[in-house]
Amino acid sequence: MRFYVGVGHRGSPREFLAIARHAEQLGLHGITFGDHVGMAPAPVSPYPSGNGRRSFAIDTPWPDVWVLSSALAAVTTRLHFLSTVYLLPLRHPLLTAKAVATAALIAGDRIELGVGVGWQREEFEALGVDFTSRGRRTDETIELLRALWRPGPTEHHGEFFEFGQLVTEPALERPVPIYVGGSSDAAMRRAARLGDGFITMPATLTALAELIPRLRDLVAERGRDAEAFQILANNVDARTAEDYARLAELGATVALVRPTNFGCNDGSSDIRSALEDFAERVVVPLSATS
Questions:
Q1: CB under 8 Å to 139, separation ≥6 — which residues?
Q2: Which residues neighbour 49 within 8 Å (Cβ) at sequence distance 6 or greater?
């Protein structure tokens, strides 16, 4: 199992270079970044969590995912970079394809695209994008991205996007993996149908023990390889190496870890201390037994 740390909107963006280098030195496998274009002070849509309230401050920094990933890739050699999650239906797929492909070429295939439909109506209205059709828009974009990343011309005539033959560079030798995130049955079905994996919402080990087999079944029902399907588990109650070993036994392929789970604050030094603690207590012992 791989360990990805969610530090993408913790602390100042200027500190991320040092954090990324430190995470790589400690043997962690990736860093995740959240995504928002803007934040409404009092959004009309409930946040997709148990209590419907967002878990972050309104002035939380949300750096551009692909600019930040490219910068961090330049100062690391092994670390992967994952969006958790990129609000795919907010953007035109031609622009997304170019930004992601550029970052992937700079990073040397260390970019992974986690996508979601979004929850904040105000972001969609600000960009002139219909909020109610965001699920169908996401489906169309996922399929179109893979076509746009291939060499040669692409032509598309869909429900939301329409264009004649275009050669969109840079092209990729291997498409960027696309993981679908969310909490709904629709998100799980989308992942099973179109995704290379699924990113769970924050969940306990008990909840994941029920969720992961359901995901594998949905993938198998589509005639796809359920074992190759990636499960990126956003777990809230694992603390020890034994807990994370249990998470791997459940079928999680990536553990999404947040430094705040271990009591650190938002400063760079606190994050680095938390990473050191986590690597010593969890990553090193599990690496020794794998």
A1: 190, 194
A2: 55, 201, 202
Residues forming beta bridges with residue 181, ordered by sequence position: 199
In contact, 256 and 8? CB cutoff 8 Å: no
pLDDT of 185: 93
Q: If you write DSSP's letter for every residue of the chain in order, what string do you get? A: -EEEEE-TTSS-GGGHHHHHHHHHHTT--EEEE---S---SS-SSPPSSSSS--SS-TT-----HHHHHHHHHTT-SS-EEEES-EEGGGS-HHHHHHHHHHHHHHHTS-EEEEEE--S-HHHHHHTT--STTHHHHHHHHHHHHHHHTSSSEEEEE-SS-EEEEEE-SS--SSPPPEEEEESSHHHHHHHHHH-SEEEEPSB-HHHHHHHHHHHHHHHHHTTS-TTTSEEEE-BSS--SHHHHHHHHHHT-SEEEE-GGGGT--SSHHHHHHHHHHHIIIIIHHHHHH-
State the chain's maximal CA–CA distance in angstroms.
54
pTM for the whole structure: 0.94
Q: What is the pLDDT of residue 288?
A: 81
Number of Cβ within 10 Å of residue 159's Cβ equals 10
**Contact status, residue 67 vs residue 96, Cβ threshold 8 Å:** no
**The two three-digit tokens of residue 180, written as one number:** 């679908």
Instruction: Give the pLDDT confidence score for residue 198 in this predicted structure.
Output: 98
| Site of tokens 């012992």 | 285
Q: Is the pLDDT reported for residue 29 higher than 80?
A: yes
**Residue from 285, 278, 227 nearest 257 by CA:** 278
Tokens standing for residue 79 = 């670390």
